[in-house]
Design goal:
This protein has about 130 residues and is mainly alpha-helical. The chain contains four helices and two strands, in the order ααβαβα. The chain has a two-stranded parallel sheet with strand order 1-2. Strand 1, helix 3 and strand 2 form a beta-alpha-beta unit. The longest helix has about 50 residues. The N and C termini lie far apart (about 105 Å).
Length: about 130
């Protein structure tokens, strides 16, 4: 006699689980549809923006800024060594932004480098 009662309880429990799963699937379907509609609206907005001509102006200005930045960075970093007259000069301040700012040479350093070069030049080279 207890067997049908236990089977009924198991069936009722399984039915509740199945109904909860179906409700969750329905909620997921509604959310997916809502996201699809939002995406579709965004795509239409982007299409209208591109078609309006404002996008061309935006991309032109963005490209000009990017190329100016690249050119500025290249010009600053292009010379291998740079001799600046004074640590307070604009040359020295600008070239402190270099990737390798140790290659900026001040007048005192230039004298030291030339003296070291002259010393090394006068030494005979040893053959091994």
């Amino acid at each position: 006699m207890r067997l049908p009662c236990k089977a009924t309880r198991l069936a009722a429990h399984k039915l509740k689980k199945l109904q909860a799963w179906n409700e969750a699937q329905a909620q997921n379907q509604k959310l997916r549809h809502k996201r699809f509609e939002q995406c579709k609206g965004l795509l239409f907005w982007v299409g209208g923006w591109v078609g309006s001509g404002h996008s061309g102006i935006f991309f032109f200005i963005s490209a000009m800024l990017a190329s100016a930045t690249f050119a500025g960075v290249s010009i600053i970093n292009l010379p291998t060594n740079l001799s600046c007259p004074d640590p307070k000069s604009l040359c020295y301040l600008v070239f402190q932004m270099r990737f390798n700012n140790k290659s900026v040479i001040l007048p005192q350093q230039a004298k030291d480098i030339i003296a070291e070069y002259e010393r090394n030049k006068s030494k005979p080279k040893r053959r091994r």
